[in-house]
Amino acid sequence: MAILLADVGGTNARLALAQAGGVDPGSIARFRGDDHADFDQVVRLFLESRGNPAIEAVCVAVAGPVSQGRARLTNRDWHFSEERLSELTGARARLINDLTALGYATPALSGEAAGFLRGPVEGGARNGQRLVVNAGTGFNVCAVKVLPDGGIACLEAEEGHTRLPISVSVPLGEALGEKAAAFDSVEELFAGRGLARLHALLYDRAPERAEAVVAAAEAGDAEAQATCDLYARLFGLVCRELALRFMPMDGMFLAGSVARSATRRFDLFETAFLSDPLMAQIPARVPIGVIRDDMAALHGCLAAVA
User: Fold this and answer.
1) How many CB atoms lie within 10 A of CB 158?
2) What is the span of the domain harbouring residue 178?
3) Parallel, antiparallel, or unpaired for β 55-62 and 92-97?
4) What predicted TM-score, i.e. pTM, was given to this entire model?
């Protein structure tokens, strides 16, 4: 029997089958959300295309909050429930948030998939704790604990809705003056819309999409480069706070388009990450990676349902 896995975002849904040996790369299929009325239709089409295999379990990662076995996408009228997934597949079902899926995937990440920019310190103490930091459309974290029996525990959080730490708000105020008050939470600064607004406020212009600012910086635009430099420094500072809060001595993994863009200025990020002497030995021993494996959420779904 097979395990059905899905990674569902606002634009696309990716589905795959897995056996005991892992995800079958040849089974992966992508479905555009705009082409389908609901997720039920996607599941039926996928299973039909694979010959309607017997399913023993299903796990779906959703780009939205999950509560009491139910979820919905934040930017599309698709609803999900574990009960409905069981009805469709005849199998036990589990719904998880997509960031939680990345958390479940981290113990399996290595090499290029882990994308370590700062590797483990030789002789450094490990504690089985990892942290996924996602900066993209939104901002949040997933703390991971690898248990002695090999099990994985992923903790829910709403880090994006915490207030900016003083280590970030002070340099932000130095850069923006009174306009820094526009950023009242971690997510408002570090999600994609935050990078876009930061650029607009720095140079008194209409907001652009974060992707446009990053592209302009890569093309050599001096103002966009300065914005991305500032963002990378501030991102390094907030990640230092997270390193102290969660002590991810097995690795902090950055995910999301805006986080990945900041790693192109890793020298600025790392300098800020290591800048404060208070408990400096902790961030100094935290490996920093970038999740580059497009299948990471599917691997995480498999770990979660197992």
Assistant:
1) 13
2) 116-290
3) parallel
4) 0.90
